Amino acid sequence: MFWFFSRKSNKAAEKKSLVSADRGDGLLVSSIIVPRSKVEEFDEESFHLVFAVMQFVVTMVSKGLYRHPEINPKAMQVFHADGYSSEVKNGGHSQFIHNAGSEIDTMIADARAGLSACGAKGQLATLEKMSAWIAKHPDEAAKQTGFEGGRDDFLDTLDDAFYEADDAMPMEDLLARWIASWPDLQIVDDDNYDDAIDRLVLSNPQREGRLLHESVSKLVRQMLSQREVGAGLACATISPSEIKLRFGMARMLDVEGEKRMVFQLRTSANELRLCAATKTRVAVYEYVAPEDPPVMRPGENPLGANAPSVGTLLGRAEESEIETVIQLSEQNHAPVAVDLLLRKAGFDPLGAIVSANSVAQTAEGPVVNWVVLASDRTFLSLSSPNGSVLLCGEDYEKLAEATMPELGAHFDRSAAAR
């Protein structure tokens, strides 16, 4: 969905370049903070020190909103080396390739550096063979899933080689010893660890802008996605109408005589729902709970024994209506509008849930109506060609409004903070 931000103005592009210029070499997190107890115990429990570095990286990215190139490279090398190990042990090299996706080159480069630095020669050898195989067989690499039917035999032999190498010399032990030798490892007393992490999180000079970008990005995913928009519109047609909240796990189920990918869907109703999307529509169905206890039928996959069933069709949205909402939302900066309107009204937009409701034809053009849930309250956002309005969900009192020039400026700020 980040193509949404590719429509940035020249002003946004100028802001982006200025931000990059202010970063110098790009490294904002030079020290790696770990609790003292993890260092003192690493000889007996090497996993804990490695995990402490992994946790440090995750916190810097998720809370500090630092980008990977801004974090000490040794921390990123441990992060990706241990990530490589975890993926292989969980689903093999095939799963690692599938889950790495477009980040695979960076992950392999970091893992290679980490394994080389810590002396994990056997594991490094399997990584190099996998990397060479990917370069030689890109089409086969793209087909890997980690599951039966999506696993190459050669990669399975690498799994065996990796396990043999890790049994002879565990990677975690080697990584922990390397981590303990770092001069830039900042060891703090356990009681002071949270405060030290919080200070580093809040010291990111780019964090405020990135919080804005993260907030708008989450709204983009809800308001410009076919499945998200379609589910919201379909829920609005249910009697009484429901509000789309969030999707859950997906599995292949029988839908009207065909096998389709079906998602669990949580709505404002007490009951769980199921949602299936096709090229022509998005539909919401009753959730029929599986038998308890599960009953295995002859020839049935064990994972299918506890699957729910698709019940009665409750609501649907046609592709034409879904596409109309998405096009209007993009044209009228609807995701940016929800973020700005909530801020203007004094509510936190981060974590807001948005559900498409309807399109109304008015004298000023089509208006898209959205139900917005934020700060434990319900709102209505009306997006039109002239701007957007936020209403209270109970009495429809106007709480905030934004003109198209305001939305354009807010869009620029968000796009520049990528």
Q: Report on the biggest sheet.
A: 5 strands, antiparallel
Rg estimate, integer Å? 25 Å
Which geometry do the CA atoms define? globular
How much helicity do the residues have? Answer: 40-55%
Give the ordered list of helices and strands.
Answer: HEHHHHHHHHEHHHEEEEEHHEEEEEH
Please report which band the strand proportion falls in: under 5%, 5-15%, 15-25%, 25-35%, 35-45% or over 45%: 15-25%
Looking across the biggest beta sheet, what order are the strands in? Answer: 3-4-5-6-7
Q: Whole-number average pLDDT?
A: 90
Protein name: DNA mimic protein DMP19 C-terminal domain-containing protein
Domain DNA mimic protein DMP19 C-terminal: 70-181
Organism: Mesorhizobium hawassense
Pfam families: DMP19 (PF14300)
